[in-house]
Amino acid sequence: MFELLLCSSLTILPDFLYRRFVQGKRLGREITLFSVWYELRWGITLCVILTVSLITTIFYFHPSTKAATSVFRTVTILPQINGRVAETYVGLNQRVEAGQPLFRLDSTEQEAAVESARRRIEEVDATMVVAKSQLAEADGRIVQARGALRQAVDELAAREEVQRRSPGSVAERDVARIRVQVDTQQGALDAALASREAIVSQMQFQLPAEKASAEAALHEAEVDLKKTLVVAGTDGIVQQFALQPGDIVNPMLRPAGILVPERRVTGLMAGFGQIESQVLKVGMIGEVTCIAKPWTIIPMVVTEVQNVIASGQVRPTDTLVDVQQFVKPGTLTVLMEPLYSGQLDDLPQGGNCIANTYTSNHEALQDPDTGSLRKLGLHAIDTVGLVHAMLLRIQALLLPIQTLVLGGH
Questions:
Q1: What is the arithmetic mean of pLDDT over 395-408?
Q2: Cα dist from 189 to 18, 154, 156, 195, whole Å
Q3: What is the residue extent of each domain of the chain?
Protein backbone atom coordinates (compact mmCIF):
# COMPACT_ATOMS: atom_id res chain seq x y z
CA MET A 1 0.00 0.00 0.00
CA PHE A 2 2.81 2.40 0.84
CA GLU A 3 4.54 1.71 -2.48
CA LEU A 4 1.26 2.18 -4.35
CA LEU A 5 0.63 5.55 -2.71
CA LEU A 6 4.19 6.64 -3.46
CA CYS A 7 4.00 5.60 -7.11
CA SER A 8 0.53 7.08 -7.60
CA SER A 9 1.78 10.44 -6.34
CA LEU A 10 4.33 10.37 -9.18
CA THR A 11 2.03 9.07 -11.92
CA ILE A 12 -1.75 9.25 -11.40
CA LEU A 13 -1.72 12.50 -9.43
CA PRO A 14 0.29 14.50 -12.03
CA ASP A 15 -1.88 13.02 -14.80
CA PHE A 16 -5.05 14.06 -12.99
CA LEU A 17 -3.72 17.56 -12.27
CA TYR A 18 -2.72 17.98 -15.91
CA ARG A 19 -6.18 17.00 -17.18
CA ARG A 20 -7.97 19.00 -14.48
CA PHE A 21 -6.14 22.30 -14.62
CA VAL A 22 -4.36 22.27 -18.00
CA GLN A 23 -6.98 20.61 -20.19
CA GLY A 24 -9.83 22.06 -18.14
CA LYS A 25 -11.66 18.79 -17.64
CA ARG A 26 -13.90 18.75 -14.65
CA LEU A 27 -14.26 16.04 -12.04
CA GLY A 28 -17.72 14.57 -12.19
CA ARG A 29 -18.36 15.67 -15.79
CA GLU A 30 -15.55 14.84 -18.24
CA ILE A 31 -13.69 12.85 -15.55
CA THR A 32 -16.22 10.44 -14.07
CA LEU A 33 -16.05 7.01 -12.49
CA PHE A 34 -16.73 5.48 -15.88
CA SER A 35 -14.14 7.54 -17.72
CA VAL A 36 -11.33 7.27 -15.18
CA TRP A 37 -9.52 4.55 -17.07
CA TYR A 38 -9.71 6.34 -20.39
CA GLU A 39 -8.82 9.74 -18.97
CA LEU A 40 -6.10 8.51 -16.60
CA ARG A 41 -4.96 5.45 -18.54
CA TRP A 42 -1.36 6.64 -18.87
CA GLY A 43 -1.05 7.48 -15.20
CA ILE A 44 -2.66 4.22 -14.04
CA THR A 45 -0.48 2.14 -16.37
CA LEU A 46 2.70 3.90 -15.26
CA CYS A 47 1.62 3.60 -11.62
CA VAL A 48 1.14 -0.16 -11.88
CA ILE A 49 4.46 -0.64 -13.69
CA LEU A 50 6.34 1.57 -11.27
CA THR A 51 4.69 -0.04 -8.22
CA VAL A 52 5.54 -3.56 -9.37
CA SER A 53 9.10 -2.50 -10.23
CA LEU A 54 9.55 -0.71 -6.93
CA ILE A 55 8.21 -3.62 -4.86
CA THR A 56 10.39 -6.10 -6.77
CA THR A 57 13.48 -3.92 -6.34
CA ILE A 58 12.87 -3.32 -2.66
CA PHE A 59 12.17 -6.92 -1.69
CA TYR A 60 14.96 -8.36 -3.85
CA PHE A 61 17.83 -6.03 -2.97
CA HIS A 62 16.63 -5.38 0.60
CA PRO A 63 15.29 -8.76 1.80
CA SER A 64 12.78 -8.95 4.60
CA THR A 65 11.38 -11.79 6.66
CA LYS A 66 9.04 -12.37 9.57
CA ALA A 67 10.75 -15.68 10.37
CA ALA A 68 13.50 -14.37 12.65
CA THR A 69 13.85 -16.10 16.00
CA SER A 70 16.31 -16.20 18.87
CA VAL A 71 16.62 -19.97 18.75
CA PHE A 72 17.98 -21.87 21.72
CA ARG A 73 18.65 -25.48 22.58
CA THR A 74 17.26 -27.41 25.48
CA VAL A 75 19.00 -30.22 27.35
CA THR A 76 16.93 -33.32 28.01
CA ILE A 77 17.28 -34.59 31.57
CA LEU A 78 17.96 -38.30 31.15
CA PRO A 79 19.78 -40.94 33.19
CA GLN A 80 22.20 -43.25 31.44
CA ILE A 81 20.47 -46.34 32.80
CA ASN A 82 16.92 -47.46 33.51
CA GLY A 83 15.74 -47.35 37.06
CA ARG A 84 13.21 -46.32 39.66
CA VAL A 85 13.49 -42.86 41.19
CA ALA A 86 14.57 -43.06 44.82
CA GLU A 87 14.93 -39.34 45.63
CA THR A 88 14.54 -35.94 43.95
CA TYR A 89 16.54 -32.84 44.86
CA VAL A 90 15.00 -30.04 42.72
CA GLY A 91 11.57 -28.76 41.84
CA LEU A 92 9.82 -27.30 38.81
CA ASN A 93 11.25 -24.04 37.41
CA GLN A 94 14.17 -24.18 39.81
CA ARG A 95 17.47 -22.61 38.80
CA VAL A 96 20.38 -25.05 39.00
CA GLU A 97 24.12 -24.92 38.48
CA ALA A 98 26.35 -27.30 36.55
CA GLY A 99 27.05 -30.42 38.62
CA GLN A 100 24.11 -29.91 40.99
CA PRO A 101 22.22 -33.19 41.76
CA LEU A 102 18.75 -33.41 40.22
CA PHE A 103 17.53 -36.84 41.26
CA ARG A 104 18.82 -40.29 42.27
CA LEU A 105 17.77 -43.72 41.09
CA ASP A 106 17.53 -46.82 43.27
CA SER A 107 21.14 -48.06 43.58
CA THR A 108 20.70 -51.34 45.45
CA GLU A 109 21.90 -53.48 42.55
CA GLN A 110 24.89 -51.22 41.82
CA GLU A 111 25.92 -51.12 45.48
CA ALA A 112 25.81 -54.92 45.60
CA ALA A 113 28.01 -55.08 42.49
CA VAL A 114 30.53 -52.72 44.12
CA GLU A 115 30.61 -54.80 47.29
CA SER A 116 31.10 -58.01 45.26
CA ALA A 117 34.01 -56.45 43.37
CA ARG A 118 35.64 -55.37 46.63
CA ARG A 119 35.24 -58.85 48.08
CA ARG A 120 36.86 -60.30 44.97
CA ILE A 121 39.89 -58.04 45.47
CA GLU A 122 40.14 -59.15 49.09
CA GLU A 123 39.92 -62.76 47.93
CA VAL A 124 42.81 -62.24 45.52
CA ASP A 125 44.87 -60.61 48.28
CA ALA A 126 44.18 -63.58 50.54
CA THR A 127 45.22 -65.97 47.75
CA MET A 128 48.45 -63.98 47.44
CA VAL A 129 49.18 -64.53 51.16
CA VAL A 130 48.48 -68.25 50.82
CA ALA A 131 50.74 -68.40 47.75
CA LYS A 132 53.58 -66.89 49.77
CA SER A 133 53.16 -69.65 52.38
CA GLN A 134 53.09 -72.26 49.63
CA LEU A 135 56.28 -70.76 48.22
CA ALA A 136 58.03 -71.19 51.58
CA GLU A 137 56.78 -74.79 51.76
CA ALA A 138 58.09 -75.41 48.24
CA ASP A 139 61.50 -74.04 49.22
CA GLY A 140 61.57 -76.49 52.18
CA ARG A 141 60.70 -79.41 49.92
CA ILE A 142 63.47 -78.40 47.55
CA VAL A 143 66.00 -78.40 50.39
CA GLN A 144 64.70 -81.78 51.56
CA ALA A 145 64.83 -83.23 48.03
CA ARG A 146 68.36 -81.95 47.47
CA GLY A 147 69.54 -83.50 50.76
CA ALA A 148 68.01 -86.86 49.91
CA LEU A 149 69.47 -86.71 46.41
CA ARG A 150 72.95 -85.87 47.77
CA GLN A 151 72.73 -88.75 50.26
CA ALA A 152 71.70 -91.18 47.51
CA VAL A 153 74.46 -89.94 45.21
CA ASP A 154 77.08 -90.31 47.98
CA GLU A 155 75.90 -93.83 48.80
CA LEU A 156 76.00 -94.80 45.12
CA ALA A 157 79.52 -93.40 44.75
CA ALA A 158 80.72 -95.31 47.83
CA ARG A 159 79.31 -98.63 46.64
CA GLU A 160 80.75 -98.15 43.17
CA GLU A 161 84.17 -97.38 44.70
CA VAL A 162 84.02 -100.57 46.81
CA GLN A 163 82.91 -102.53 43.76
CA ARG A 164 85.83 -101.14 41.81
CA ARG A 165 88.41 -101.97 44.47
CA SER A 166 86.99 -105.35 45.38
CA PRO A 167 84.87 -106.75 42.62
CA GLY A 168 82.14 -109.04 43.85
CA SER A 169 82.15 -107.66 47.39
CA VAL A 170 78.95 -105.67 46.65
CA ALA A 171 76.01 -107.26 44.92
CA GLU A 172 75.05 -105.72 41.56
CA ARG A 173 71.49 -105.72 42.67
CA ASP A 174 72.30 -103.32 45.53
CA VAL A 175 74.16 -101.01 43.17
CA ALA A 176 71.21 -100.99 40.74
CA ARG A 177 68.80 -100.28 43.62
CA ILE A 178 70.91 -97.30 44.71
CA ARG A 179 70.95 -95.98 41.14
CA VAL A 180 67.15 -96.17 40.98
CA GLN A 181 67.02 -94.35 44.30
CA VAL A 182 69.23 -91.57 42.88
CA ASP A 183 66.94 -91.21 39.88
CA THR A 184 63.91 -91.14 42.19
CA GLN A 185 65.41 -88.42 44.34
CA GLN A 186 66.36 -86.45 41.21
CA GLY A 187 62.75 -86.65 40.04
CA ALA A 188 61.56 -85.52 43.48
CA LEU A 189 63.92 -82.52 43.26
CA ASP A 190 62.70 -81.65 39.76
CA ALA A 191 59.09 -81.91 40.94
CA ALA A 192 59.82 -79.62 43.89
CA LEU A 193 61.51 -77.09 41.60
CA ALA A 194 58.59 -77.23 39.15
CA SER A 195 56.13 -76.76 42.00
CA ARG A 196 58.03 -73.70 43.19
CA GLU A 197 58.12 -72.30 39.64
CA ALA A 198 54.36 -72.76 39.38
CA ILE A 199 53.81 -70.90 42.65
CA VAL A 200 56.16 -68.09 41.54
CA SER A 201 54.32 -67.82 38.20
CA GLN A 202 51.02 -67.69 40.04
CA MET A 203 52.30 -64.87 42.28
CA GLN A 204 53.91 -62.90 39.46
CA PHE A 205 51.34 -63.30 36.68
CA GLN A 206 48.06 -65.03 37.55
CA LEU A 207 47.20 -63.34 40.84
CA PRO A 208 48.17 -59.79 39.68
CA ALA A 209 46.05 -60.32 36.55
CA GLU A 210 43.11 -61.52 38.65
CA LYS A 211 43.52 -58.54 40.95
CA ALA A 212 43.66 -56.14 37.99
CA SER A 213 40.46 -57.69 36.60
CA ALA A 214 38.81 -57.38 40.01
CA GLU A 215 39.88 -53.74 40.29
CA ALA A 216 38.52 -53.09 36.78
CA ALA A 217 35.25 -54.73 37.78
CA LEU A 218 35.18 -52.53 40.89
CA HIS A 219 35.76 -49.43 38.79
CA GLU A 220 32.99 -50.46 36.41
CA ALA A 221 30.64 -51.08 39.32
CA GLU A 222 31.50 -47.68 40.82
CA VAL A 223 30.83 -46.01 37.45
CA ASP A 224 27.44 -47.73 37.28
CA LEU A 225 26.77 -46.58 40.84
CA LYS A 226 27.59 -42.97 39.88
CA LYS A 227 25.15 -43.22 36.97
CA THR A 228 22.30 -43.55 39.45
CA LEU A 229 22.88 -39.93 40.48
CA VAL A 230 21.76 -37.53 37.72
CA VAL A 231 23.30 -34.04 37.86
CA ALA A 232 22.83 -30.88 35.79
CA GLY A 233 25.23 -30.65 32.86
CA THR A 234 25.04 -26.86 32.63
CA ASP A 235 23.61 -23.84 34.39
CA GLY A 236 19.94 -23.34 33.63
CA ILE A 237 16.33 -23.65 34.71
CA VAL A 238 14.56 -26.99 35.14
CA GLN A 239 11.34 -27.23 33.14
CA GLN A 240 8.67 -29.95 32.89
CA PHE A 241 10.21 -31.74 35.85
CA ALA A 242 7.53 -33.64 37.76
CA LEU A 243 9.35 -36.74 39.00
CA GLN A 244 8.28 -38.40 42.23
CA PRO A 245 9.99 -41.20 44.16
CA GLY A 246 8.87 -44.50 42.69
CA ASP A 247 8.60 -43.30 39.07
CA ILE A 248 10.34 -45.35 36.39
CA VAL A 249 12.73 -43.40 34.16
CA ASN A 250 13.81 -44.79 30.79
CA PRO A 251 16.45 -42.98 28.71
CA MET A 252 14.79 -44.16 25.50
CA LEU A 253 11.10 -43.65 26.25
CA ARG A 254 10.57 -41.45 29.29
CA PRO A 255 12.81 -38.45 30.00
CA ALA A 256 12.75 -36.84 33.40
CA GLY A 257 12.40 -33.24 32.21
CA ILE A 258 14.05 -30.43 30.28
CA LEU A 259 16.90 -28.15 31.31
CA VAL A 260 16.93 -24.76 29.58
CA PRO A 261 20.52 -23.43 29.59
CA GLU A 262 20.85 -20.00 31.11
CA ARG A 263 22.33 -17.94 28.30
CA ARG A 264 21.82 -14.47 26.93
CA VAL A 265 20.54 -13.99 23.40
CA THR A 266 23.53 -13.06 21.24
CA GLY A 267 21.99 -13.43 17.80
CA LEU A 268 19.00 -14.33 15.69
CA MET A 269 18.38 -17.02 13.11
CA ALA A 270 16.32 -15.76 10.17
CA GLY A 271 14.84 -17.57 7.18
CA PHE A 272 14.85 -15.70 3.84
CA GLY A 273 13.50 -16.78 0.48
CA GLN A 274 15.72 -18.74 -1.88
CA ILE A 275 15.41 -16.05 -4.56
CA GLU A 276 17.44 -13.73 -2.31
CA SER A 277 20.41 -16.10 -2.03
CA GLN A 278 22.47 -14.01 -4.49
CA VAL A 279 21.89 -10.83 -2.50
CA LEU A 280 22.41 -11.98 1.08
CA LYS A 281 26.09 -11.69 2.00
CA VAL A 282 28.08 -11.79 5.20
CA GLY A 283 28.55 -8.27 6.52
CA MET A 284 25.19 -6.87 5.33
CA ILE A 285 23.60 -4.36 7.67
CA GLY A 286 20.08 -5.10 8.86
CA GLU A 287 17.44 -4.12 11.36
CA VAL A 288 14.96 -6.05 13.46
CA THR A 289 11.96 -5.32 15.59
CA CYS A 290 10.77 -7.94 18.05
CA ILE A 291 7.43 -8.64 19.70
CA ALA A 292 9.12 -8.83 23.09
CA LYS A 293 10.77 -5.42 22.55
CA PRO A 294 7.94 -3.22 21.19
CA TRP A 295 8.66 0.08 19.43
CA THR A 296 12.37 -0.75 19.28
CA ILE A 297 14.54 -0.98 16.18
CA ILE A 298 17.77 -2.93 16.69
CA PRO A 299 20.58 -2.60 14.13
CA MET A 300 22.00 -5.97 13.11
CA VAL A 301 24.72 -7.41 10.91
CA VAL A 302 24.72 -10.67 8.95
CA THR A 303 27.45 -12.95 10.33
CA GLU A 304 26.75 -16.18 8.44
CA VAL A 305 24.72 -17.37 5.46
CA GLN A 306 24.05 -21.10 5.49
CA ASN A 307 24.94 -22.62 2.12
CA VAL A 308 22.42 -25.47 2.37
CA ILE A 309 18.62 -25.49 2.55
CA ALA A 310 17.05 -27.82 5.10
CA SER A 311 14.08 -28.80 2.91
CA GLY A 312 16.38 -30.68 0.51
CA GLN A 313 18.01 -33.01 3.02
CA VAL A 314 17.74 -36.77 2.49
CA ARG A 315 17.96 -39.30 5.28
CA PRO A 316 18.84 -42.95 4.58
CA THR A 317 15.73 -45.11 5.00
CA ASP A 318 14.31 -48.32 3.58
CA THR A 319 12.05 -46.32 1.24
CA LEU A 320 12.98 -44.52 -1.96
CA VAL A 321 12.51 -40.78 -1.73
CA ASP A 322 10.07 -39.20 -4.17
CA VAL A 323 11.43 -35.91 -5.52
CA GLN A 324 7.90 -34.51 -5.46
CA GLN A 325 8.26 -34.28 -1.69
CA PHE A 326 10.75 -31.44 -2.25
CA VAL A 327 8.37 -29.28 -4.30
CA LYS A 328 7.80 -26.84 -1.45
CA PRO A 329 10.84 -24.53 -1.36
CA GLY A 330 12.64 -24.07 1.91
CA THR A 331 14.20 -20.95 3.32
CA LEU A 332 17.78 -19.76 3.37
CA THR A 333 19.06 -19.69 6.96
CA VAL A 334 20.92 -16.52 7.95
CA LEU A 335 22.56 -15.75 11.30
CA MET A 336 22.37 -12.15 12.49
CA GLU A 337 24.01 -10.50 15.47
CA PRO A 338 23.42 -7.06 16.98
CA LEU A 339 25.67 -4.34 15.66
CA TYR A 340 26.30 -3.19 19.22
CA SER A 341 26.76 -5.67 22.05
CA GLY A 342 24.10 -6.00 24.72
CA GLN A 343 21.12 -4.92 22.60
CA LEU A 344 19.51 -8.37 22.74
CA ASP A 345 20.35 -9.21 26.34
CA ASP A 346 16.77 -8.66 27.53
CA LEU A 347 15.19 -10.54 24.63
CA PRO A 348 13.70 -13.85 25.82
CA GLN A 349 15.11 -16.99 24.26
CA GLY A 350 12.80 -18.04 21.43
CA GLY A 351 11.49 -14.52 20.82
CA ASN A 352 10.09 -13.80 17.34
CA CYS A 353 11.20 -10.79 15.31
CA ILE A 354 10.77 -9.09 11.93
CA ALA A 355 14.08 -8.61 10.12
CA ASN A 356 15.24 -6.40 7.25
CA THR A 357 18.60 -6.49 5.49
CA TYR A 358 19.91 -3.71 3.24
CA THR A 359 22.14 -3.96 0.20
CA SER A 360 24.97 -1.43 0.17
CA ASN A 361 26.73 -0.49 -3.07
CA HIS A 362 29.09 2.05 -1.52
CA GLU A 363 32.25 0.37 -2.79
CA ALA A 364 30.89 0.05 -6.32
CA LEU A 365 29.84 3.72 -6.31
CA GLN A 366 33.32 4.77 -5.22
CA ASP A 367 34.93 2.73 -8.00
CA PRO A 368 36.01 5.09 -10.83
CA ASP A 369 35.43 2.33 -13.40
CA THR A 370 31.69 2.25 -12.65
CA GLY A 371 29.68 3.85 -15.48
CA SER A 372 27.19 6.68 -15.04
CA LEU A 373 24.12 4.58 -15.82
CA ARG A 374 25.30 1.86 -13.44
CA LYS A 375 25.92 4.45 -10.73
CA LEU A 376 22.43 5.82 -11.27
CA GLY A 377 20.96 2.34 -10.91
CA LEU A 378 23.02 1.59 -7.80
CA HIS A 379 21.99 4.90 -6.26
CA ALA A 380 18.37 4.02 -6.94
CA ILE A 381 18.78 0.59 -5.33
CA ASP A 382 20.36 2.06 -2.20
CA THR A 383 17.73 4.79 -2.04
CA VAL A 384 14.69 2.51 -2.17
CA GLY A 385 16.05 0.79 0.94
CA LEU A 386 14.69 3.82 2.78
CA VAL A 387 11.18 2.66 1.87
CA HIS A 388 11.82 -0.71 3.48
CA ALA A 389 13.24 0.98 6.58
CA MET A 390 10.10 3.13 6.83
CA LEU A 391 7.91 0.04 6.45
CA LEU A 392 9.80 -1.69 9.28
CA ARG A 393 9.22 1.30 11.55
CA ILE A 394 5.54 1.35 10.67
CA GLN A 395 5.39 -2.37 11.50
CA ALA A 396 7.17 -1.73 14.80
CA LEU A 397 4.65 1.01 15.57
CA LEU A 398 1.60 -1.12 14.73
CA LEU A 399 2.90 -4.43 16.10
CA PRO A 400 1.65 -3.94 19.69
CA ILE A 401 -1.72 -2.76 18.37
CA GLN A 402 -2.05 -5.74 16.05
CA THR A 403 -1.03 -8.15 18.81
CA LEU A 404 -3.05 -6.75 21.71
CA VAL A 405 -6.08 -5.18 20.00
CA LEU A 406 -6.60 -6.67 16.58
CA GLY A 407 -5.24 -10.05 17.62
CA GLY A 408 -7.84 -10.38 20.37
CA HIS A 409 -5.32 -10.96 23.18
A1: 81
A2: 134, 16, 17, 10
A3: 1-59, 62-72+263-312+327-409, 75-106+228-261, 108-226
